[in-house]
Amino acid sequence: MSYFVYILKCSDGTLYTGWTNDLDKRLEKHNSGKGSKYVRARLPAKLAYSEKLANMKEAMARERAIKALPRASKLKIINQ
């Protein structure tokens, strides 16, 4: 099973970072309003970045690391 860390760009320009084992399904949930409360209030959201990782532990650690970054660093990751 693969795991992904992703960054969404919300309609208000903010960024949301999360992890999942099914990226397409998770994006569908977010944009249907059944994902996180944060994204639900800022729809529509577009996938700006995703990264495939080997396991859940790595995905969770990468999510934490990205969330700790300032916005400018997140934008650099997106624009790589």
Outline of this structure?
By secondary structure, the protein is of the alpha+beta class.
Can you describe this structure?
41% of the residues lie in helices and 29% in strands. It is of the alpha+beta class and 80 residues long. It has one domain: GIY-YIG endonuclease (3-Layer(aba) Sandwich), CATH 3.40.1440. Strands 2-1-3 form a three-stranded antiparallel β-sheet, with helices on both faces. The model has no long low-confidence stretch (mean pLDDT 96).
Structural class computed from helices and strand pairing: alpha+beta
Strand order of the largest sheet: 2-1-3
Q: Round the mean pLDDT to the nearest integer and report it.
A: 96
Name of the level-1 CATH class: Alpha Beta
Strand composition percent: 25-35%
Low-confidence stretches: none
Annotated CATH homologous superfamily = GIY-YIG endonuclease
What is the first-to-last residue Cα distance? 26 Å
Note the main sheet: 3 strands, antiparallel
Tell me, what's the shape?
Answer: globular
